[in-house]
Specification:
Elements: E1 3-7, E2 13-17, H1 30-40, E3 56-59, E4 64-66, E5 69-85, E6 91-104, E7 110-114, E8 119-123, H2 127-150
Antiparallel strand pairs: 1-2, 2-8, 3-5, 4-5, 5-6, 6-7, 7-8
């Protein structure tokens, strides 16, 4: 699903749904988008510090359009037991979204949706920090692997 948005003076946006966008062009997508949100922002910054249930981050397979700009959507969901059962009498479950985050395809803008007033808040962009940590972790892993491989 895509969105169109209107911004106010505080930089928040009100959004309405309108369609979906393929994410092939996105700088960051799929599991990397989840890792970016999880590793670069605290639960407090993400508005998840008051969520009592365990949540799981998921990324939408399609991007969204907000105010003419394309974003990858990452959500935090909790599993909720439904009051109903299926045809075999077994319990059913559904996902309840407790947080929504949007990373622009160029990774220069990160938005968080305020679930109560449906406005968007711009988060500090930490993409460069994420890339730097990823490169550092990657080169450390490579160095350890190489030294282990040569120690035999």
């Amino acid at each position: 699903m895509a969105f169109s948005a209107c911004s106010n003076a505080d930089g928040d946006s009100t959004v309405t749904a309108s369609g979906e966008v393929p994410t092939e062009e996105a700088v960051i997508k799929e599991i990397d988008a989840i890792h970016f949100i999880e590793q670069c922002y605290t639960e407090e910054e993400l508005g998840l510090d008051k969520v009592e249930d365990d949540y799981k981050m998921m990324v939408a397979s399609n991007g969204v359009d907000i105010d003419g700009k394309k974003y990858v959507k990452v959500v935090a969901n909790v599993v909720v037991r439904n009051d109903t059962t299926n045809e075999e009498g077994k319990e059913t479950f559904s996902m309840e979204t407790v947080g929504e985050y949007f990373i622009s395809f160029d990774a220069k803008t990160v938005l968080m949706k305020d679930r109560e007033n449906r406005k968007y808040k711009k988060l500090e962009n930490r993409y460069d920090e994420y890339v730097q940590n990823k490169v550092t972790s990657s080169s450390q892993t490579t160095a350890v692997t190489q030294s282990t491989a040569h120690s035999h």
